[in-house]
């Protein structure tokens, strides 16, 4: 029985979605996939529906009404997974910036090791990023250093979005109380797992920037992460932070 599901949010990923699905399903360990599509104008959801006949009971699709944000896409996926019997629930991008082969390493860190959360980390063994301009590498690296300093978390890649959660972690976190919807969502989820004293492990991976499709990064997403982290930490100090 398959005990792991990979949640992949999509918005205009028609160029990547078939390849990423087939790559995950070609792995030696079995995974299910849940695509959470935000009404992509390019027909991403229609492509997934076509593939469902090829991968029945393995490939699932949730269609949403519009572009509602990365955080809400994952929360939708988490709730969907928790309604079923999955013990290991993954986050992964559709654009191959996360190598599907690393899913097995993240799985083993939780299933065979003692970790509750396994992070595919770009920075735990240096800087393992390919095809990013130096300005973006520095922005991402300093953002993680900043978050680590403010929150006190011993995590090198605090903004990483390639993650395996044990079921218990997501059951303990009140998903309805998540405040951030952009990339700061990734920081908030790690911070809540940290406050709940779950064991978090960083697994070194190589992050490769997308070669197909367009990035969803924006200045608003960055400012949410920078300023939201301070508020999040202060609230946790004064016990007004809901986990």
Automatic annotation (TrEMBL):
**InterPro entries, alphabetized:** DPM1-like, Glyco_trans_2-like, Nucleotide-diphossugar_trans
The record's Gene3D superfamilies line, in alphabetical order, gives: Spore Coat Polysaccharide Biosynthesis Protein SpsA, Chain A
This entry's Gene Ontology molecular function terms read: dolichyl-phosphate beta-D-mannosyltransferase activity
Q: Which Pfam families match?
A: Glycos_transf_2 (PF00535)
Q: Kindly indicate whether the keyword Glycosyltransferase belongs to this entry.
A: yes
Q: What biological process terms from GO does the record include?
A: glycolipid biosynthetic process
Query: Could you name the Gene Ontology cellular component terms for this entry?
Result: membrane
Q: Glycosyltransferase 2-like domain spans which residues? A: 6-172
User: Which keywords does this Swiss-Prot/TrEMBL entry list?
Assistant: Glycosyltransferase, Transferase
Annotated TM spans = none
Q: Which family does it belong to?
A: Belongs to the glycosyltransferase 2 family.
Name of the protein in its database record: Dolichol-phosphate mannosyltransferase
User: Which organism does this sequence originate in?
Assistant: Aquimarina spongiae
